[in-house]
Write a structure and sequence with these properties.
Elements: E1 6-8, H1 14-25, H2 44-56, H3 60-68, E2 72-77, E3 80-87, E4 95-100, H4 114-118, E5 131-136, H5 154-168, E6 174-178, H6 181-192, E7 197-202, H7 219-234, H8 237-244, H9 246-255, H10 257-271, H11 284-297, H12 300-303, H13 305-312, E8 327-331, H14 341-344, E9 351-356, H15 364-367, H16 369-380
Parallel strand pairs: 4-5, 4-6, 6-7, 7-8, 8-9
Antiparallel strand pairs: 1-2, 2-3, 3-5
Helix pairs in contact: 1-2, 5-6, 8-13, 9-10, 10-11
Length: about 400
Amino acid sequence: MTVRPTPFALSIPQVSLDDLYNRLANTRLPDQTPGPAWQFGTDRSYMSELVQYWRDSFDWRAQEAALNQFPQFMVNLHGIDLHYLHIQGAGPNPTPLLLMHGWPGSVFEFLDMIPILTDPEQFGGDPSQSFTIIAPSLPGFGLSFQPNQKRFGAHEMADCFVDLMVNVLGFDRFALQGGDWGSFVGSSIAMRHSDHVIGMHLNMLPIRPDPVAALNATEEEVKYACEIAHWAKDETGYTWIQATRPQTLAYGLTDSPAGLAAWIAEKFYAWTDHDGRIETAVARDRMLANVSLYWFTGAIGSSFWPYYERHHTQWTVPDDAQITVPTGYAAFPAEIRRPPRSIAQKVYRDLRHWSAMPKGGHFAALEQPHALAADITKFFNDLRPQPFTAE
């Protein structure tokens, strides 16, 4: 039986907006721990300002309309209603590209980058280098979530996306791009469904973060081990609670929009390439659109599941994995983990493209959409199949 996608447009009921504003108006903030701002988590003065802006100035309808500019669909796959964007490339032979976000992100990350990839001529590029973009909301995230639905780990997401690309959309072979969990899901597809993969571009490498340098390690590898040891000590609190007691955390973040915003804003502060203010790296309205989507869909608890699944099973990309599809990597300087090429190529055996990006961090598509799009395009130029048509 053929599964048929249904067109979708996002429209949050006004009663949900009113409820959000009422909750924000009644926010109770904690005091600020003495010491430097942000050292102990999200800074109170910033949160006071952000809550007021979210309540009084943020225009959700404008962000909703920005998302709805792009064709969106729902399709029932693997027991859930999967949400995705599907934008046809404008060039003569666009390459299908599966674009995957991570946590605490959403498809809002891609809105500025999608036109650059689908219609490069608009931005001074070559129309023959266009992509057709398929950007799903990860299962359990945002619009791919309904209360009480089953949970998906990275491998289950990978299988669902292959089914979407091949059996629903008719792309027997396609390109991959991802960061954060998108890099794990993409690597799972490349590892387990390589016959469908043209190539894979990542802006985060899902290498196991080993804080101990191997014997005979290079200077670069020793430096990375030191960075990982510091990261494991001071930056992994969120992973432990999300990977061990996700249900408990979900109560607070599902009930309090300020709590949800503080949890997510701390990651935008820690993981973006800014000059002391998040907004110098990512527009406040786009960050709040992302937070609001988690709020309106109630999906924050289910978005924790990949952490729990990874913590209680084998690492998604095992140490002995051999990923052989052509792989490219954009190394942004403020990414949370930056393994050297010598470590990465032990897993990614055809790591043929490595770009040291001048600026940007974990949310690369939000922070540096033009630079990321240019690197994606450059990597796939030599891999584009000729000719290509969807069945």
